[in-house]
């Protein structure tokens, strides 16, 4: 039971890391488009 809980927590952390990376990539893309558009 305890092991299963740890596994769920690891899954949650992995999902948050993936989401965080996607958000950063999206922000970089938006910033680059904005920068190119102005330049």
- The residue fraction in helices comes out at over 70%
CA-CA gap between termini: 57 Å
**Which shape, going by the Cα principal axes?**
rod-shaped
What would you call the structural class? mainly alpha
Radius of gyration: 17 Å
Oligomeric status: single chain
Describe what is shown at a glance.
The chain is built from one helix and no strands. It has 39 residues and is mainly α. It has one domain.
Notable traits:
single chain, 39 residues, mainly alpha, 1 helix, 0% strand, rod-shaped
Polypeptide structure, described:
With 39 residues, the chain is mainly α. The protein has one domain (1-38). The chain is built from 1 helix and no strands. The chain has one helix spanning 2-38. The longest helix has 37 residues, at 2-38. It starts with a helix and ends with a helix.
Question: Would you spell out the secondary-structure blueprint of this structure?
Answer:
Blueprint: H1 2-38
Transmembrane segments: 12-33
Keywords: Membrane, Transmembrane, Transmembrane helix
